Amino acid sequence: MRVLALDYGSARCGCAVCDPTGTLAMPLAPVDRPASRRGLSRLRALVESLGAERVVVGLPVSLSGQDSEQTRQARAFAAALAGELPVEVELFDERFTTVIARRNGGRAAEDSRAAAHLLEGWLARAQSPAREPAGG
Question: Which domain does 72 fall in, by range?
Answer without folding.
Answer: 3-127
